[in-house]
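Ticket closed. Logging final result for Helix-turn-helix transcriptional regulator.
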Amino acid sequence: MVDRIHSDQTRLSKSPLFFIASVGFGCYLGWGMLGSSPSLLSPVIAQTVSRTAIGDGAERVVWMLAIAVLGLWAFAKRHTNFSRKPISVAAGIFTAGGTIAIYATGALDAENILTPSLSQLPIALSSLYILLWGEQLCLLNGKQALQCVLIASFISFAMVVFCSALPPAAQAAAQIAAPVFSSAALLCLEAKRPDREPELISENAPKFPLRAFVGIGLFGVIVVLLQSFSEGKTDQPNELLWVIAGLIVNAALFLASIASPKEIKASFLSKLVLPLLVISAFFVFATDFGQQNVEVFAIGCSWIYLRLFTWIIWRIGALSSNVPPMSVIAIGQLILTAGTIAGGTIHTAMTDFGASQLMTIAFICILGILVAMFFLDTRYVAELADGPVPFDPEDRAICERCVDNATAKYGLSGQERAIALMLVRGDDNDSIQNELVIATNTLRTHLRNMYKKTDAHSREDLVLLLRSLTHHK
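Final structure:
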């Protein structure tokens, strides 16, 4: 799988595919941002817009169930070819169709026919986009993936600003069109992708990065707590400041990624987690006379940073795990969702039991230190990010390493080792026979013996297995 990812990274890094991925991803995020920012849109449709946000009712259950099912299905299909096109089409149809149903219910005042909760169920399948776009990020290298997330996130906030200046009908049309464009981008990327080879996951790949994913979930707990305590000071949260914070954070990091001659490592990004949480906590609890703009902006920066950092960690986890990317991202999203739900539950419990401000601050700070110093420790994130070694058939050192590891692991003979090296380089049977001066039947015999030793079922399986041994120890 490593060599397929490497070749796809090269393909997707080139414009206009990178542009299509960034805009398509941004359309999905923008659809969600519009649903989360009803106060910035027309009062005529504000209540209807708010229903497109995934709440805690039946739609949340369907939303999580869709993620779990697709993640399990991708894991079951890990050794076979399967097209992402039907999933992309289904995500677009249900998300756009559900959004239309919600607007129609509100416009026709037909809640007695189609209740709000029932009309929200189709948009729950928007969660399919998370796995689809998360997998697309795995086809980019580190710098390009970060820039793609930053551009997409910036587009999502810019969509809110742009739509706020439109008439109500145009605002509704923009939100309906967003998932359609997102699916169209996914279909375009899928059409440009070469035929997929069966994915062979190396048994020697690092273990699943559960520690990092739990850290993201706990990060979510803290951000939800800070947001809940801050919004408890007012009846009208300032959503505009959140949008401004989003634009500033995304623009600043994007400019930094362009200006820096080197890639901005995930380990560096992890250093900013604790300062952001501490600053946000300070502003939330420093004043008791209503919600202040500075605390809204600080929490907005923390929330946006959580979203950006989450995609980067999920991508790293997917590339460093022996589980298919879709399955890895599904687990990551379910853990993050559990964290945000836990954050709301903890806030309710603290409020009901009258927890003191000192106790609340202590709990948040201790949890933040735990996240920054253990779950998302800089050294651990760096090791996780540097784990997989991309395969390059033109890099003789990597080819030799693959073959040496295979020889040690499977006991290849000298002639089998020579054949393995040429297979790893991508040579065909004629080239192997000419270079080694062997007959066709002799080559077939050696290949059968290698299949038996490695438990491979075909030439393609054998090549993928050999190329996956770049980091075997």
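The chain has three domains: 1-197, 204-390, 396-471. No further action required.
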